[in-house]
């Protein structure tokens, strides 16, 4: 297991260095191309049909820019700004943001509902609130995308005495993951989505590991998948609260 972890860390480092350099080299000239196309698209002398093509080209460039941003976040993640954080509060904020997305606002009854069971007894930990919110948003949206016909996302928090850690579980009621592929879903560029980049869960895993925590996924006994995030609590803090 130790050797596998070392190999994983080395692969991430090499991939990060390569991705970061490539994304940086592409980013600036791509921004220049987009700026020129935006200028051309506002030229009244260009036929309407050509202006439409230009606008479609700009939209495609924006998608490439979003991918490059993900690459840079993966390759050179910002250093966490640790402070005392209420995990339940961060989850509430992530849920409130997620519920504004179209997939959660469907009027035809096929939307995604979020059910939360947040243990009020858990306490604050040292973490970066913005990075944790990014993690929870990724997991909630990922769960919703696994249920295109609608379903339920369940979010739970708890404290595990044995490991002296907080646990956050995000479950869906989708079709689950092929058991042979569960271990691959955190690998960079691996995705089961037709429009996915394969970086969302890789970045999520990296952020959690920067916080000294772990994340794993497993199929539920009935429907869907559960992602379990474990975040350490300093033992001195735990003892003062027990």
Could you walk me through the main structural features you see in this protein, from its secondary elements to its overall organization?
By secondary structure, this protein is of the alpha+beta class. It contains six helices and seven strands. It has helices at residues 2-41, 48-75, 87-98, 129-145, 200-210, 235-241, and strands at 83-85, 112-118, 125-127, 151-160, 165-171, 214-219, 225-232. The strands form two sheets. The protein has a five-stranded mixed β-sheet with strand order 2-4-5-7-6, covered by helices on one side. The chain is globular, with a radius of gyration of 21 Å. The two termini are 33 Å apart. Mean pLDDT is 79; it is low at 1-9 and 236-242.
Key terms for this structure?
disordered N terminus, 242 residues, alpha+beta, globular, single chain
What is the strand and helix layout of this fold?
Layout: H1 2-41, H2 48-75, E1 83-85, H3 87-98, E2 112-118, E3 125-127, H4 129-145, E4 151-160, E5 165-171, H5 200-210, E6 214-219, E7 225-232, H6 235-241
């Amino acid at each position: 297991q130790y050797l596998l972890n070392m190999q994983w860390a080395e692969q991430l480092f090499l991939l990060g260095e390569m991705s970061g350099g490539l994304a940086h080299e592409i980013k600036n000239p791509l921004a220049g191309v987009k700026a020129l196309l935006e200028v051309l698209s506002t030229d009244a002398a260009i036929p309407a049909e050509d202006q439409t093509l230009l606008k479609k080209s700009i939209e495609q460039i924006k998608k490439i820019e979003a991918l490059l941003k993900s690459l840079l976040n993966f390759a050179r993640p910002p250093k966490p700004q640790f402070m005392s954080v209420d995990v339940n509060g961060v989850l509430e904020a992530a849920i409130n943001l997620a519920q504004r997305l179209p997939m959660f606002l469907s009027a035809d009854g096929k939307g995604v509902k979020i059910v939360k069971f947040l243990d009020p007894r858990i306490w604050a930990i040292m973490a970066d609130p913005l990075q944790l919110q990014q993690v929870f948003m990724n997991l909630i949206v990922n769960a919703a995308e696994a249920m295109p016909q609608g379903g339920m996302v369940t979010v739970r928090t708890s404290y595990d005495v044995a490991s002296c850690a907080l646990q956050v579980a995000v479950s869906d009621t989708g079709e689950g993951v092929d058991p042979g592929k569960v271990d691959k879903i955190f690998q960079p560029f691996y995705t089961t989505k037709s429009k996915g980049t394969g970086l969302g869960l890789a970045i999520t895993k990296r952020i959690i590991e920067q916080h000294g925590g772990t994340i794993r996924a497993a199929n539920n006994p009935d429907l869907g998948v559960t992602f379990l995030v474990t975040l350490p609590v300093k033992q001195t803090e735990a003892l003062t609260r027990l």
